[in-house]
Amino acid sequence: MATRRAPAGPLRQDARRNRTALVVAAKAAFAEEGLNAALEGVARRAGVAVGTLYRHFPTRMDLVAAVIADKKRAWIKAAEAAVVMEPAWDGLVFFLERTCELQAGDLAFNDIASMRFPHAGIEAARKRAYDLGRRIVERAQAEGSLRADVTAEDLAFIVWALSRVSEATFAIDPKAWRRYLALALDGYRATAAHPLPAPPLRPRQVLRAQLQLGRRRLR
């Protein structure tokens, strides 16, 4: 007599439920603790064994990619909207404000927006955001509102700096970063331009800096 197999449907439902629980738990853990949050703790939050976590997400970066998927899409959508705004200065401001809003209170997205990590999906989104950011800069410079010596890499450093402001102040005043973004933007206006004491970092130098930070975060 043949052995009767258990129905496949409920197992698939359990797997989907476990995966959803893991993503929800990881969102909370990574937002609070950063990308180095203990995966055992994520599994406990989700109410599953750590082996279940690894079956769904073989590497930490696979889990990170699932956690930040929605914010990654929102980031690209903001850049796509900003690159066609008129005046172009408003597009620049909108893009930086939206990036900082996505970062606020989320240590994981703070890191994703300002560092480099070994995951193709995350890096593809970063490259898309960078390419759009470069066009946003070029449009604002062409209209004469953005100082001519600003580069797309300089935008990355605004985001980088404000991610740390948000990290330090979010529990005290979650909107504190807005003050420092406004101060930075005043320095980016063409009408406020003065000669800068040092040249911008070249793209390869920025890449090295981001990779170094990314490696430190994932130790």
Description:
The chain has 219 residues and is mainly alpha-helical. 71% of the residues lie in helices and 0% in strands. It contains eleven helices and no strands. It has helices spanning 8-33, 39-46, 50-56, 60-67, 69-82, 88-103, 107-114, 120-142, 152-169, 176-188, 203-217. Helix 1 crosses helix 2 (39-46) and helix 9 (152-169) packs antiparallel against helix 10. It is elongated and about 60 Å long.
Radius of gyration: 21 Å
**What structural category arises from helix and sheet content?**
mainly alpha
Q: What's the SSE pattern? A: HHHHHHHHHHH
DSSP strand tally: 0
- Percent helix, as a range, is over 70%
Which segments are poorly predicted (pLDDT under 50) over 5 or more consecutive residues? 1-11
- Report how far apart the termini are: 54 Å
What general form does the structure show? elongated
Residue fraction in strands: under 5%
Biggest sheet architecture: none
What's the topology here?
Layout: H1 8-33, H2 39-46, H3 50-56, H4 60-67, H5 69-82, H6 88-103, H7 107-114, H8 120-142, H9 152-169, H10 176-188, H11 203-217
Helix pairs in contact: 1-2, 1-4, 5-6, 5-8, 6-8, 6-9, 6-10, 7-9, 8-9, 9-10
Descriptive keywords:
219 residues, mainly alpha, 11 helices, disordered N terminus
Short structural description:
This protein is an all-alpha fold. It is built from eleven helices and no strands.
